[in-house]
Amino acid sequence: MQTTRNPNARRPAKLPLAVAICLAISAPAFAQDAPAPAPAPDATDAPVAAPKDVKAAPTLGAVTVTAQKRVENLQEVPVSIQVLGSERLEQEHATDFDDYAKLLPSVSFDRSDAGGSVAYMRGVASGENGNHSGPQPSVGVYLDEEPVTTIGGVIDVNLYDIERVEALAGPQGTLYGASSQAGTLRLISKKPDATGFSAGYSTEVNSISHGGNGYVAEGFVNVPFSPSAALRVVAWDKKDAGWIDNVFGTRTFPGWDLLSGGHGTIDNAAVAKKDYNDTETRGGRAALKIDFNENWSITPTVLTQTQNGHGSFSSDPAVGELETRRFFPERYRDAFTQAALTVTGKIGNFDLTYAYTHLNRHIDSDSDYRDYSFWYDAYYQDYYSTYGSNPAAEFFVDDNGNPINPSQLIHGDDRYMKTSHELRLSSPQDQRFRFIV
């Protein structure tokens, strides 16, 4: 990017700047000539009331994070970390991965269709090529204490009732293990609170300019059973409206048209639709926290979510602005369930944490691959026509020699399972020398 200077912009005057410097240098001299301050009043003097219109200066509350597997003040953490608290997430209307990733300068990402976004930090990638059977990601993703990193992209958990998002840039393999070569993303959910009952909900109806309409309905309830036990349940249902139109059109395959006597033309009347790339997300989370005493507690958690996307999120400028022409129904379904168990306690002055998780993720998708077969056919028709041969008889007929529709559809059925156990022992946090095993 080239930076240009406005030729009409006025430069600051040199004389006022010189005067300001002189005044700043001579300030101690003026202070010496000032009259001496009045002596302090005696203890018997009547107290002077402060003016009523004087207000206390606002102060910022401490931001606590757990980036180093401890509860610490953000200002005391010696690592590159960015934090988005619940208030910031609400102000920015962040509801999914794409929303909060845009707020993190160290994070960039590739977005495919509904879900399936791949995160990058500091430009580091482990050979990522968009293949569902490719290498593991280079950015680890954690939900509370449990890893939820899989090949199929970042799990797009709905952000309702989330305490904060932490982004740790740079290698984090020491504390977070595999898939953290470039960094780690952590989603910290709000925990059950045994001090009192609370509940809330949020509803929304929205629309996209030149697109469709969507909605959001989500809520939570926190129920204390006793001074040492509480249950927190969260549920959500939302629809993200589409904005890309699948317009009506036809396509003629040269080889198929030649063999079928002029009948190799198809249309997309069955799937043509306005604003057809919408996404529906439904899910819920339940967490139970039991405190056995002031040192030991156990928190089982279950999270489940299903995201159904329709259509394609790419447009074709040759067809029109925010328009495309697809001939097969396209969809993307990302369903996952995570069961987790966290036990925290103390052994002497040492903090002990055990975290278990089992993640089951199923991604099911259909994609129109007709462009490939069309250009494959068109290229070979042009190539072999030059050399006096007809490849259609070889490429687009069945075993009986009958012409067939060369259209192609890719169906993906990918399943990922991850089970992890972590046992962590930490030395006292107030000591100068600290360690984590």
How does this structure look, described?
- By secondary structure, the chain is mainly β.
- 14% of the residues lie in helices and 38% in strands.
- It has seven helices and 21 strands.
- The chain is elongated.
- The chain starts with 13 loop residues before the first helix and ends in an 11-residue tail after the last strand.
- The model is unreliable at 1-52 (pLDDT under 50).
* Main structural class: mainly beta
Helix content: 10-25%
Distance N to C terminus: 47 Å
- H-E string: HEEEHHEEEEEHEEEEEEHEEEEEEHHE
Could you give the count of β-strands? 21
User: Mean pLDDT, as a whole number?
Assistant: 80
Largest sheet: 8 strands, antiparallel
Radius of gyration, CA atoms, in whole angstroms: 31 Å
**What is the helix tally?**
7
How much strand content do the residues show? 35-45%
Query: How are the strands of the biggest sheet laid out side by side?
Result: 10-11-12-16-17-19-20-21
What characteristic shape results from the CA principal axes? Answer: elongated
Low-confidence stretches: 1-52
